[in-house]
């Protein structure tokens, strides 16, 4: 962080992080008329104040130091849904601590790749910083002392400081293994052991305390920089949806943690598989009506599935994928409008909905309703 | 058409064909309060009056009789850009004849698969209806008498007729071979012969007269149903963009064709390859500035390409594909906003722009500005 704080000659641009929305541009620092060119940052102006703005340094986007290595150690990272889900979930949690109007988001710059690798590994004499349990004695360490921690994600929240930006807060996600996958010998069969939530909670809380203490010692982190640590439970490797956050804590200063808060999130794929119970039967029925409606409409529909996301028991979002076979652009356009009209009629109102219409040659169209909106936006991908 | 005209017991739904736009639903015929359930059609209501509504019969979408077989005969159909481009181009041409406020679009129902196959084949004693030249004598028929016609597309434009719909107009696209590909022996090497535009024009005009005469004899087509025939030049099989329409004619009644109109359309892929000249240097420079801007921004950008479309020398649309490698959702979101902001700043105003942001795992985000709009819509595809 020292580098950033001292960056008096740095050109810092800031772009809007709106996940979706019409952009409007309030100012443009590359206009010859505006300010000095040596030390400033700017915003593009936002229409969606619920989104963070991202940090650019010297005209280049700041990727995380531990970029691509937050998912690590062994075979734990094979469900890629977990990655996206953990990132956007941590951002949502951060919003309750770091207001989007005041803070900009920079990908984690404090924890380096090497540090992340050490923290995620098992503790050992050669790796005293490992957050996962030491192997200890006995051959059954993989079931008795599984690796609880699989992934680590850092997000830095920056605040304006004159013409520059300074660190205003840190969010850390610890991705815990609900299922720990391991091999008994190299290249051997993969086994898994289930870890219950109380155990993950206990292990995660202990790790959180260590992580906060270590961050406090890092350059650029002051004694009262707020640090949020959230515990995430990775979905199993065959899941068609990512995991969920289950607990979080804030350290306002020093190594003191505040009270742990329980986070009640659930994900479910629809239609539910045999023997599985719908988390919310109304939502499941609405989805089933929607899906019947569009399956009847189109001769060669291959399948409709949805990822649903609940917070405190309430549906907050649905990502629907429609797979079908198309022979022409006219079919895709008609079908897309029909999907939008069926979504309006059958799907639950109020929550965010994203529908992608896919064929074997990739995405053909998409239909979306943002949170708080009433109407659907539709787009059919074209070609000349 | 008889079937459709006699369809007193048919439930015909009509959906909006808006390629893109916010949907609002003006009426809903499945509401128990509205009308009889046995014979009616309805519209979803449009916000974009420049789009056709599509036809649904008995709750199912009406695909074309010649579905999937419009592209046929031999190796001519290997550039899939041609298919999309021809379909949407024919629709654009139709709009100048059949107003979107009065006509609904139904995929071609008159020309059956078998008929299309016969028409597209070479004329022979066993296939007198073949529109392509007979082989004749001599081994050099593939260069001397190439197959001019590769594809055939029919679109039916329907008008309200009491509680039902009747045929109000027909549009036909004849997809001509600028490059005719052939094998000298089965499974042998593929050769190609170039056919110049005057030759295609002459051949296409003769075929158009035959097609109009044959359509007039079909059931449901009256003597004064307007028939539009447009000639399309397929792009070569290696092109990264589809072909263009070059001529069209309207038969208002009988077998009489009106005056042929020249259509001035051009497509080009940007950046241009070595030795190729940009169709419009301003557009090419704007694109190059845009591309430089975003390539500087992001560490792992693999490439930016665009399909550009010109009508009468004016840029009317750009489809841009950005390929890059991402490690996380935050990167994608920041990058998407940066792309939108760069597009706003550098790309030509006034024309339709669609930008898809791709990684190896498929589409990640998209940015679009509809024709006539000033601001860009952005969407980052999410996952739970």
TrEMBL record, chains A, B:
Coiled coil: none annotated. InterPro entries: CamS (IPR011426). It comes from the Bacteria. Residues 1-18 form the signal peptide. Keywords: Signal. It comes from Lacticaseibacillus baoqingensis. This is CamS family sex pheromone protein. The keyword GTP-binding does not apply.
